[in-house]
Amino acid sequence: MSLVRCDLLQLINQKIQASKQLQSSQKFVAVLEYILAIGNHLNEKAGKEVARGFRLSSLAKLPLLRGKERTFTLLHALVEQILLHEPDLATFSQELTEFEAVPDASMKGLSAEVDVLRKELENIIQCRRLIKPKTIKATPQELQFCKELKDLIQKYEGDLSQLSKRCDEMKKLYSNVLVKFGEPQDLDSQELFGWISSFISEFRKACAEVTP
Questions:
Q1: Those residues with Cβ within 8 angstroms of residue 33's Cβ, 6 or more apart along the chain or in another chain
Q2: Nearest-CA neighbor of 196 among 90, 102, 64, 85?
Q3: Between 107-131 and 3-24, two packed helices, what is the crossing angle to 10 degrees?
Q4: Which residues does the UniProt record annotate as the domain FH2 (predicted)?
Q5: Model-level pTM?
């Protein structure tokens, strides 16, 4: 497999692993439940309706919502409640190791790259049909070239088949993640994973500031 396709497969595998971690992380779900509880407590005090859930984009707002003390945010309040009642949840990021870095590629982009490779293969196969020599008139060099081209196409087809299967798995797992967290199916993975990655980073900072 070429370097480009190896890199592409590695990125696809990372997205698959990230989706699997989101699906299986019980601690992250528990942290979200704390956020919902705090939000509903504030809603009740403000005379607003109780919410049944919230968009994950709201995670980015937690470090921005400040109380009377300008240095104390809603994220600090969340950390305090978790450390007070269920301190083990503060390590939720250990279940989401694929989110240590901000995602640098979207699933839509990776899928598009696989489609480009598929189109390239179709073009190569078409070229082979055009240059395939007549067996009777072909020179040894032409026959050798056609054999090598055939072998190359077969290897390319095998590599692309592996990529396509992993790409389909990636999209299916991500779709399941969107369903689990009540997000729209057209939400770009780079956005969703970016929110979670930033939340993990900000949560750690708040923990360090809250912990004596």
A1: none
A2: 102
A3: 150
A4: 1-212
A5: 0.83
Q: Tokens 């190569």 label which residue? A: 124
Give the integer Cα–Cα distance in Å for 176 and 22. 10
Contact 64, 16 (CB under 8 A): no
Q: Can you read off the two tokens belonging to residue 6? A: 């190896």
DSSP letter at 48 equals: P
Block mean pLDDT (10 aa), the chain, length 212:
70 95 97 95 84 92 84 93 96 95 83 89 76 65 75 79 93 97 95 95 94 75
CATH topology of domain 19-102+191-210: Methane Monooxygenase Hydroxylase; Chain G, domain 1 (1.20.58)
Q: 107-131 vs 189-210: helix axis angle to the nearest 10?
A: 150
Query: How many Å is the Cα radius of gyration of the chain?
Result: 25
The token pair at 69 is 């003390």
Q: Which residues of 89-124 are buried (b: 16+ CB within 10 A; e: fewer)?
A: bbebbeebebbeeebebbbeebbebbeebeeeeeee
pLDDT value of position 42: 86
Using alpha carbons, list the distances in angstroms from residue 167 to 82, 115, 156, 164: 37, 10, 16, 5
Residue type, 125: I
β-bridge partners, 66: 73
